[in-house]
Design brief:
The protein is an alpha+beta fold. The chain contains 27 helices and 28 strands. It has five domains: 87 residues, Single Sheet (N-terminal domain of TfIIb); 57 residues, no CATH class; 167 residues, Nucleotidyltransferase, domain 5, CATH 3.30.420.10; 168 residues, no CATH class; 200 residues, Cathepsin B, Chain A, CATH 3.90.70.80. Strands 9-10-13-12-11-14-15 form a seven-stranded mixed beta sheet, with helices on both faces. Strands 1-2-3-4-5-6 form a six-stranded antiparallel beta sheet, covered by helices on one side. The protein has a six-stranded mixed beta sheet with strand order 22-28-27-23-24-25. The longest helix is centred in the middle third of the chain and has 23 residues.
Length: 733
């Protein structure tokens, strides 16, 4: 609908209805009129209308008109036009049109059952018109409502615009005859909470004493802040049991959820809960379960440190310099030390940072960690004399020294993992993060409608029931990843051995930091054999060349690093598009919605996928404007000229939200925005296919072409349901 259609106001002597294409219709004096434009006049804005029978052929064509404008009382009023209608108003037809309008509105915006929608609409009709309507389940009207609501294709109702519009009726609270929505409350203070689980899962929540909690944001509906999930620990993994939609991350919302769970299962008594580092969440658990032990996930501790590195503007330095990266990893390594050595380790590490060449950067990072997890020093009490030491710039004596610290945001008992390492318990909740990613992949796109998310969670609830049931029945459980088991053993050995030999704090931290990066080291190191076996990247001067590995080179790499050459690792090649001379500074995942290629282009040219509407318009106009040049120049297409009708169709499809971006759209975007676009997809043979689009070159297959990096470059990996965008491929200096 255009802007002028949206602005048509409601009035005192007429009614506005809408067609199936959501175009306005004026109902005035029993006649129906189509919108015919608007104009600014001396009297103000005037909207013009003409009879719906004007489009009919033959002598019955009606020329009746009407207009809508403000009367002297500043109220919108309809007036008959100069040309009168040549027919009488049809009351029965008007009733049917009104019935169709109300049915359509309720189908698009309501949340009632289909039969209830049809029944209520029929009851409002006059008796003389009801005979023309068939409300049976197999009627065309019922099928039309279902088609409008897209229930037959499992596509949800329209997204509510406000929290007051959310309607979770009794039908939605059940999934396959099982109650899944146990609590649905809106307090009116922007505190909306929806709790979803099942009777079996709530029973299991009471049986298991080790819990885990985490939130995911990408799959929460737009009106909600997060989807908060409570897990129970099974063996070394976690299984979801309670799903909570929350509009805020306030302590009040967390208290509301835990109190409702306590009402549903009074026997709840967790002894251990793994949490994110969120104070409101911690306070809520302390209020609900005072005797429960709270532990922060080490994965989130590392993420918090790395996020602050990015906030300080040191991300590029962290990625480029291995020494700086290693010294940063010594900071979260403090969590592996015995708790009684935490404060002394902080003091020693700060002194170690002061002598580093990155002292300025590391001191800022240390200030953040110390104030948040240890507590800043507020004073020093000296009661005896002895050897002088230096603590955060203050010279005090070692004997009889007591350092006063401000209470940290999170006590060391929460984030210290020394006991977990020694008992060989998982220090992270990787299975929780894995489930969040799997759930997002199943849904297929970010921020789905709440009416679609609830059935998806219902399916996950059934899956969780079967998983816990199989475990309790003695079934096999997935083994831990070998890499994590190896790192766990190395960490345990490092802690035990450094404790036995009484290593100083700095040596202890270095030993731990060497193992913290072992899990993700190969993924970030361009010289890793895993990455070498995917794509070989040669940079010569200002030329970027992509070559697929030959068998001899692959064989040499595998022999050198002890790899088995049975499988060819080509997957996700462009994600490791990095070297010391040319590498992406960041990646962006765009979930598919029918036009993710053009949304990826929007990310590349503007940094925001929401700008894809303007990108589609500009690309379509560019194709039409240069269609003659496209037919003459071979650079627009590799082997053939493009007919005019195909050009116009591609330009039109560019503005269609339900069409995928084509190769022609990428060629036009490359030339329009002056960017190099590399696309990657998997062929049926299993080999990867690279294609390059350059503003000044012919489009062709990437391995056979050399790219002059005179333009900004981006890379897309095209899959069935999303695009991964690699941004800012930097040319060598």
């Amino acid at each position: 609908m255009t802007e002028k259609h949206r602005n048509v106001p409601q009035g005192i002597n007429y009614e506005l209805q809408y067609t199936e294409k959501i175009m306005p219709m004026l109902v005035f004096n029993g006649y129906y009129h189509h919108f015919n434009g608007s104009r600014d006049t001396i009297e103000g804005q005037v909207y013009y209308w003409r009879c719906v029978k004007r489009a009919e052929l033959g002598v019955d064509k009606c020329s009746g008109t009407a207009s809508v404008k403000e009367n002297p009382d500043k109220q919108w009023q309809a007036y008959a036009g100069r040309t009168q209608h040549n027919h009488e108003p049809n009351a029965i037809q008007a009733s049917i049109r009104t019935f169709q309008h109300e049915l359509r509105s309720e189908a698009l915006n309501g949340a009632k059952a289909t039969r209830e929608v049809v029944k209520e609409s029929v009851e409002k009709m006059p008796e003389y018109a009801k005979a023309l309507v068939d409300p049976s389940p197999a009627s065309k009207i019922v099928r039309k409502v279902r088609r409008k609501r897209k229930l037959e294709t499992n596509i949800p109702l329209s997204e509510p615009k406000t929290l007051h519009e959310i309607q979770i009726n009794d039908d939605m609270k059940y999934f396959k005859d099982k109650l899944i929505v146990y609590y649905n409350d809106f307090t009116g203070d922007d505190e909306y909470v929806v709790i979803m689980s099942s009777e079996k899962l709530l029973d299991n929540l009471a049986k298991f004493s080790h819990w885990g909690c985490d939130a995911t944001f990408s799959i929460a509906p737009l009106l909600f802040r997060q989807l908060w999930i409570i897990y129970v620990k099974i063996n070394h993994s976690y299984c979801p049991v309670v799903f909570c939609l929350m509009t805020t991350k306030s302590e009040k919302s967390y208290n509301m959820i835990l109190s409702q769970l306590t009402l549903l299962r009074p026997q709840l008594k967790p002894t251990y809960v793994a949490l994110d580092f969120e104070k409101a969440e911690h306070n809520a658990f302390k209020n609900a379960f005072p005797e429960c032990s709270l532990n922060g996930c080490f994965f989130h501790l590392q993420n918090a440190v790395f996020s602050h590195i990015s906030e300080l503007g040191f991300k590029r330095l962290y990625n480029a310099d291995s020494d700086f990266r290693f010294q940063c990893q010594m900071l979260p390594a403090i969590s592996a030390l015995p708790p009684e050595r935490t404060c002394s380790a902080i003091c020693d590490l700060r002194e170690y940072y002061e002598h580093s060449k990155f002292s300025t950067e590391l001191s800022k990072l240390m200030d953040y960690f110390e104030s948040r997890y240890v507590g800043r020093i507020t004073g020093v009490n000296v009661t005896a004399t002895g050897t002088t030491i230096r603590i955060t710039g203050v010279d005090v004596t070692a004997e009889g020294t007591k350092i006063r610290r401000k209470a940290p945001l999170f006590e060391k008992d929460i984030w210290n993992i020394n006991a977990m390492i020694l008992s060989e318990q998982p220090k992270t909740s990787n299975s929780i993060e894995s489930f969040n990613k799997q759930l997002a992949k199943c849904i297929g796109h970010s921020h789905p409608s709440i009416y679609r998310l609830i059935p998806e969670i219902g399916a996950e609830i059934l899956w969780a029931e079967s998983k816990i049931g199989a475990y309790l029945a003695g079934g096999k459980f997935p083994r831990r990843n070998g890499r994590y088991v190896e790192v766990q053993k190395r960490l345990r050995n490092a802690v035990i051995r450094n404790t036995e030999v009484k290593s100083n704090n700095i040596s202890f931290l270095k030993a731990i930091a060497m193992n913290l990066g072992r899990v993700d080291h190969r993924r970030s190191d361009p010289n890793s054999p895993e990455i070498q076996c995917m794509t070989k990247l040669n940079v010569v001067r200002r030329v970027l060349k992509l070559d697929m590995l030959d068998d001899d080179f692959l064989h040499q790499i595998c022999i050198k690093h002890g790899y088995n050459q049975e499988k060819r690792a080509y997957e996700a090649s462009f994600k490791y598009f990095s070297s010391t001379e040319a590498k992406p500074s960041r990646t962006w995942c765009v979930f598919g919605d029918g036009n993710c290629i053009l949304r990826s282009v929007a990310v590349a040219v503007s940094g925001d996928e929401e700008n894809h509407l303007a990108v589609r318009r500009d690309v379509g106009n560019y194709i039409i404007k240069h269609r003659e040049k496209c037919n003459r120049a071979r650079c627009w297409c590799r082997t053939y000229n493009i007919p005019n009708d195909l050009l116009l169709e591609s330009a039109q499809n560019c503005g269609d939200r339900d069409r995928w971006g084509s190769t022609l759209h990428l060629i036009a975007a490359s030339k329009l925005y002056k960017i190099v676009i590399l696309t990657y997809s998997q062929l049926e043979s299993g080999l990867p296919s690279w294609t390059v689009h350059n503003p000044s070159m012919q489009t062709g297959t990437a391995p056979s072409m050399e790219q002059e990096l005179v333009y900004p470059s981006v890379a897309f990996q095209i899959e069935a349901n999303h695009c991964d965008v690699v941004l800012d491929v930097e040319p060598p200096l």
